[in-house]
Design brief:
Blueprint lengths: L1 H12 L4 E4 L2 E4 L1 H15 L19 H8 L5 H19 L6 H15 L2 E3 L7 H13 L4 H13 L1 E3 L3
Antiparallel strand pairs: 1-2, 3-4
Helix pairs in contact: 2-5, 3-4, 4-5, 4-7
Length: about 160
């Protein structure tokens, strides 16, 4: 619940920028960096030493996104689900920031889906720690078509098309 309050606060203060490719909105590198810094500051505890600095720009370039855009997907929805997975994966595994990569990955996934007409509802009600274990397992996976499909299926179960 706290995350949603922070995000609502952030949405009122910041201007999100997107690049549009094939009628799909992709958050800019600057948007992701600003979102990361906001999340790290909001979640910092007094005893934590959390840094807002950037570690590596390479994962934020999202070269892998070109790969899936070049595939001949018929359905925009499939491209968006795969894009959401890739954004999350690049941010979690690529470690572009010193701290807060997983949190930034999940919020960027949410932002990407929202910018493209979907609402992502994280399944807090379901097996709480089981979901966290599943996400942790995926973060440690090496890329292969089986786990990409599993993650995409999981994402698709928890999103709804926005009405407006």
């Amino acid at each position: 619940m706290r995350l949603y309050i922070y995000l609502a606060e952030y949405l009122h203060k910041k201007d999100f920028r997107f690049n549009v490719v094939n009628n799909i909105n992709y958050p800019t590198v600057e948007t992701i960096k600003n979102l990361h810094d906001f999340l790290v500051i909001k979640y910092q505890k007094d005893i934590d030493k959390i840094h807002t600095g950037q570690y590596s720009l390479a994962p934020l370039q999202f070269t892998g996104i070109k790969y899936f855009l070049e595939s001949k997907e018929d359905k925009r929805e499939d491209i968006i689900f795969r894009g959401a997975h890739i954004f999350n994966k690049f941010l979690e595994e690529g470690h572009p920031f010193i701290d807060g990569n997983k949190r930034t990955g999940w919020v960027t996934l949410w932002l990407f889906l929202a910018a493209n007409g979907y609402i992502f509802i994280f399944p807090i009600h379901e097996e709480g720690s089981e979901q966290a274990k599943k996400v942790e397992k995926w973060a440690s996976y090496k890329e292969n078509s089986e786990n990409i499909k599993e993650i995409m299926d999981w994402i698709s179960r928890y999103i709804k098309k926005r009405k407006n």
